[in-house]
Each structure stands twice: as C-alpha cells, then as structure tokens.
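Revision sheet: structure tokens.
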Amino acid sequence: IVRNNLNGRMKTARSSQKTATEGKETTDREITITTTGTEDRTRDGTTKTDVRKEEQITSVLPDRKEIRIRRNSQLMKSLLKNSILSLFSACLLTACNEHTVYHSYQSLPNEGWGKSDTLSFQIPITDSVPTTLRLFAEVRNSIGYPYHDLHLFISQNLQDSTVWRTDTIAFSLADSTGRWMGHGWGSIFQSETFIKSVLPLHSGNYTIKVINGMKDEKLQGLSDVGIRIERQ
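Predicted:
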C-alpha cells in the first residue's frame, strides 16, 4: 500500500501494468483525486480515503449548535423578564392614575426662587361627594443645590374654602455624605414628601400655595415644584 498526502490539491496518478503471461501493456488507467485529506492507494488501483479529518469537522458542529441554542435561550429569558417588568410598571402606573385627581408642576426662574415668591396651584374638586384626599409635595433639584434639606410652607383651603391652613414640611434631599436621595436622571433629582390627608366639605375650586422656607433671598438649585393629590 502506497500512502499519498494530497493536501487539498488535485493529483493525477497514472499506472501501467503488464501481465506476466503476455508481456503486453494493459490499458492505462487514470485516477483523478479531488478530495482533501489522506488517501491509500492499493496496488490493484483502488483508493481508500482517510476520513479522520472529516470526522473531526463533524464533531465540532454540535458544539457550535449547542452554543447557539444556549444563546437563544438566554435571549428569550431576558426578553421575557423585560416584558414582565414593563407589564408590571404599566399596571402600577395605571393603578396610580386611577387614584390621582391632580398632578402639576411649576417651573422656577433660572436666577433662583425668591423668598417672597409664592407658587399657587388651582385645585378643581369635581366629586359630588368628596372623599378623603392625600396631599404630596414634589421638588426637582440639580446637583448645584447648596443644602441637604429643604423647608416649605404649604397653605391650602381644601377643607373649607374660607379657612386657610398652613403646614411646614421638610425634604431630605441628600444624606450626611452628600449623596442625593431622590430619583435622578443626569444632574436632576426628584423627591417627594407626604403633606397631610384632608376631606373637602363639597366640590369646588380650591387653592394650594407654596412658599420657600429657606433663609436665602434667591434659593438656587431648584428647577420645579409640584403638587400631587390622590384619593385615599
């Protein structure tokens, strides 16, 4: 047996054979080999291909297939998780909207919130039989706000349009290390605090007034102040 390594190239083998009795040359046979790998050629002209390299290639393919299957499985799990979170957030937002009767912000001047500047929010109560309402104050501050806390004076006449009641509330905007505690995006952070619960006597238009309770004549670092009212 003669072993020839072809290395991927075409090789033509021409063999001549004489019979022992007649001494004549038999018909020449040409063997054209176009396969890659190693072949064995026997003396009678038959060929035998070594398929070990092909087996190695075949054995690698299942591993790649398994990798693709695992990646697709991880991708599907990630998509499913994100879909569940999105659905939960949408349901939560819908539930909040069902209870919210008022939500509004007022922007503050770029030069600062003056100590004597009053923000007024007009609150329409349309329920024929008013229910107990929960009042919340919200603020948005930048990283340039100079204090850890914020004090506001909030006056409202929701219980009786002829009587004004004032509450002092405090926001903790940053902890003792200076880390902002609100929900942030970029350089803006939003915080909220509960004011009180009130029960209007009847439907009508009411007002909530907000005054800056800090010592600065022009308080810097605040961009917006908001009021949110929810049914209890």
